[in-house]
Specification:
single chain, mainly alpha, two-stranded antiparallel sheet, 19 helices
C-alpha cells in the first residue's frame, strides 16, 4: 500500500487529496501518451464513484489495483532472468518476439522513460507507475505506444515508414491506423491548400506571385484558392501507404539480428520513398499545373491530364523528376540526422518530453532538411510548370540553378520557403491531433 500511496502523492501536485483530469493529463503527456485528454477523462469517468469529477485516494486505489492485477503477470513475463527488474536487453527481446527490431539506443530510451532511480533497469514499482499513466490494455498496445513516443514527426506531408507488430497485422489494427492517418492527411492538406498553392506560385513567379494571386482571387472567387487540392489529396495517402509497404518488405531482407542500422534505415527510406514518389509523380505535375492556372481553365483533373497528353507528351508527366528525386537525398539525409540527434538529446531530460517542445525540436529538423534541399524543389516545380513558365528554357537542374542565381541571387533559391514553413505548423498539428482521435473513433467500430 505504501507503493500505491507514493504514486498517488506524486500525481496529486497541489496536495489537495484528489487527482484531477488535468493532473493526469499533464503526467501522461510527459511520457508521450497520445490522446491524453480522452484517456485521462476515461480513467476518471470510470473510477469516479461519487461523480465529483476527480479521484480521491480510495477511488484511485481501485484503479491502481486493477492495473496491478492486469499487468503483474506481464511484468513477470518480461523479466526473463527473474531478477525483479527489466533491462534494455529484455526490451529488445520483447520487440523481437513481436516481429520487430529496435536499436539498443531506443531500448535504452524506453527504459529511461520508466526508470526513476537512474539504475537503467525498471523494477515492478517503476513499471506499475508507468502503466498507471499508460492505459494500454495489452503488450501489443503498450509496445505501440512506446514506438509512437520515440518519434514526433513534423513536416508538410511526409510520412515516416511505419512498423507494425504481428498482433497489429493479424487483428487489422494497421488498416485502421493507415485509414485514420489518410483521413487526417486529407483534412490537413485541404485546410492548408491556399498556403500550398501560394508556395507553388512563389516558386514559379517569384515576387509577382502575390499580385497574380490577387487577380486570380478576383476572377475565380474564394474557391480558386483550393484549385489543385483534390489531386493533392488523392496523391498523399496512397503514396505514403505504398512507401510503407515497400519499406516493410525490404526491411525483412536486410535487417540483421540487431535490427537495421541508421545507414540502412536511411538507405531503405530513400529507396522506398523514391519508388513510391515515382509511381505517383504524374499527380504531382497535375497538382502544380492546376495550382498555377486560373480556376476552371483546364475544366478539372481529367481535362488537365488530357490536355498535357494531347498538347505535349507522356514525358511531360515526368518533367522535373530528376531534381525531385535528387532533392529527396539531402532532405531525408539532413532531416534524419538532425532529427535523431535532437530527439536523442531531448529524451535524456524529462523536461523536454512535452508535446510542445518535441514539436519545436522536430520543426528544427524539418527546417534543416528543407533548407538543404529547397533549391532543387524550386527547379522541380519550375520544370513541372514548363508549359507556361516565364523561363521555359530551364532544361536541367544545373542550368536552372545557374539561371536563378544570375537573375535573383541566393534569395531566388528559396522563393516560397517561408510559405512552406508557415504551412508545416498547422499541417503537422492537424495530422498529429486528428490521427489519434480518428484512430480511437475507428477502433470503436468492430
Amino acid at each position: 500500500m505504501d507503493q500505491f500511496r507514493s504514486i498517488f502523492l506524486k500525481l496529486d501536485k497541489n496536495e489537495d487529496g484528489f487527482i484531477t483530469v488535468d493532473e493526469l493529463r499533464k503526467e501522461m503527456t510527459k511520457i508521450g501518451i497520445s490522446s491524453v485528454d480522452e484517456k485521462a477523462q476515461a480513467i476518471v469517468g470510470k473510477y469516479d464513484k461519487n461523480n465529483d469529477e476527480h479521484l480521491d485516494y480510495e477511488e484511485f486505489l481501485s484503479y491502481m489495483m486493477d492495473r496491478e492485477k492486469k499487468w503483474k503477470i506481464h511484468f513477470q513475463t518480461l523479466d526473463k532472468n527473474k531478477c525483479g527488474a527489466i533491462d534494455q536487453d529484455e526490451i529488445m527481446h520483447l520487440f523481437k518476439e513481436l516481429g520487430l527490431s529496435i536499436s539498443k539506443q531506443n531500448a535504452k530510451r524506453i527504459i529511461q522513460m520508466m526508470d526513476e532511480d537512474s539504475s537503467m533497469t525498471v523494477d515492478w514499482g517503476e513499471f506499475l507507475q508507468h502503466i498507471v499513466l499508460n492505459p494500454a490494455e495489452d503488450i501489443g498496445e503498450l509496445v505501440s505506444s512506446w514506438k509512437r513516443s520515440l518519434v514526433f514527426d513534423v513536416g508538410e506531408s511526409r510520412a515516416m515508414p511505419m512498423d507494425f507488430t504481428q498482433e497489429e497485422t493479424d487483428s487489422g489494427i494497421w488498416k485502421k491506423y493507415i485509414l485514420a492517418g489518410g483521413m487526417a492527411d486529407a483534412v490537413s492538406r485541404t485546410a492548408t491548400a491556399p498556403i500550398d498553392r501560394l508556395k507553388t506560385q512563389l516558386q514559379v513567379y517569384g515576387s509577382k506571385a502575390l499580385s497574380r494571386g490577387l487577380r486570380e482571387l478576383q476572377f475565380g472567387g474564394f474557391k480558386s484558392m483550393w484549385q489543385g487540392n483534390a489531386v493533392n489529396v488523392l496523391k498523399g495517402t496512397p503514396q505514403s501507404t505504398l512507401q510503407c509497404l515497400i519499406y516493410s518488405q525490404m526491411k525483412v531482407h536486410y535487417q540483421g539480428p540487431d535490427g537495421l542500422s541508421v545507414q540502412q534505415r536511411f538507405g531503405l527510406g530513400c529507396v522506398s520513398g523514391a519508388a513510391a514518389h515515382s509511381v505517383f509523380y504524374p499527380l504531382e505535375v497535375l497538382k502544380v499545373r492546376l495550382n498555377l492556372m486560373q480556376r476552371d481553365a483546364y475544366g478539372g483533373v481529367l481535362r488537365c491530364a488530357q490536355s498535357i497528353y494531347q498538347n505535349e507528351s507522356v514525358l511531360a508527366f515526368y518533367r522535373g523528376f530528376k531534381p525531385s528525386i535528387l532533392c529527396m537525398v539531402p532532405y531525408a539525409g539532413v532531416e534524419c540526422a538532425v532529427h535523431q540527434s535532437i530527439m536523442y538529446w531531448a529524451k535524456t531530460d524529462p523536461a523536454n518530453s512535452s508535446d510542445s517542445r518535441l514539436f519545436f525540436f522536430s520543426f528544427l529538423a524539418f527546417a534543416s532538411g528543407q533548407t538543404a534541399s529547397y533549391p532543387l524543389a524550386v527547379i522541380r516545380t519550375q520544370q513541372q510548370a514548363q508549359a507556361f513558365n516565364v523561363n521555359p528554357q530551364t532544361a536541367n537542374a544545373l542550368q536552372g540553378l545557374t539561371d536563378i542565381y544570375v537573375k535573383h541571387g541566393l534569395r531566388g533559391f528559396y522563393s516560397g520557403m517561408g510559405a512552406s514553413f508557415v504551412r508545416a505548423v498547422p499541417c503537422a498539428l492537424l495530422n498529429y491531433t486528428l490521427t489519434s482521435k480518428l484512430e480511437m473513433l475507428l477502433s470503436s467500430f468492430k
